[in-house]
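Field: COMPLEX_INPUT
Field: COMPONENT_COUNT = two
Field: RESIDUE_TOTAL = 354
Field: MODE = joint
Values follow.
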Amino acid sequence: MSDISAEEQLRAELAFFGRMTASVTHEINNCIAIIGQVSGLLQDLCYSAQQGRPVELEKLCSNSQKVGGQVARIQEIVKRLNRFAHSVDNAVVCFNPCDTVHNLVDLCQRFASNRGVTLTMDGTLDAVAIEGDPFCLQQAVFLCIDTAMEASRDGGSVNVSVTSSDSGILITVVSSAPLSSDEHKLSLALLECVVNKIGGSAVLPHTGAEEHEFRLEFPGKIGAA
Amino acid sequence: MKRLKVLLVDDEEELVAPLIERLKLRDYEAVGVLDGAEAIEMVKEREFDVVVLDVKMPGLGGLEVMRQIKAVRPDLAIILLTGRGSSKESDIGIEQGAYDYLIKPIDIKDLIRKMNDAVAASRDGGQHE
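Field: COMPLEX_OUTPUT
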């Protein structure tokens, strides 16, 4: 059993929330930076036209569309963050774990991209519900994804899947790379702690194997979405 | 007066493309690449006066790219682009030879002023104070 104190657990929860928020705001900032440059270019082109220089209509159209594209990108990112932020509203709630994990995987794509890792997700369970804390579930899955991506790095891949099991749902996180011995010890101890807190069980990967797999199982009801 | 040659490195193609156009409209010779490895190759093959380099990129990060560029072109002026002010990475970047950094979203006037200052400092053989 882990020896992580309540204070360390609280700190880890805040750190998780902070990492997600920081990542998303960086992504939004990138979109704003793009919109700033594209609108600046449109202003430059307008100025050129005012000076009597020819301006390609195609250039005006394509850059206007880019602004719309970035606004749509921001809307999608904000929707994901908003959903994540509301996951702390209730400690016990009935929720679809597949949708929740899907949203988390979408939020993790930037971490994956920065590490040169391909992050994918399989499985959709429409009619499944579990009762518990969706924030803790996401923290547990994130610890698996983060550890797996850290081990994989440049060119590696991590796959997340949500399937039904005898007693509820099974979430697996598989990495194409071996897990080194000591460096992930703290994450794994914390993971056990979080999974236990929400009534689940975890099978953690062995270090040194060619690829590694996390298996998290949570009690739930299939057909009770 | 000689036109300044600028290499812009950022993985966001939609940021690089309009910025290149805006610099060209202001009479700079600007080219852009979307990853660090390509930037290093470009610097080996062509002459530039200044490199504007994003710190956070997939694959080779901006600081590693800067180290490799400095290894082949120690006097080449480099300006870092970062998503936040006074980050650890931008501080390390300055320590390791970047002229300065700019925080995204960037203002074209700030970029031009900083590029011109960086090139002047590089020609004087000095760094930013």
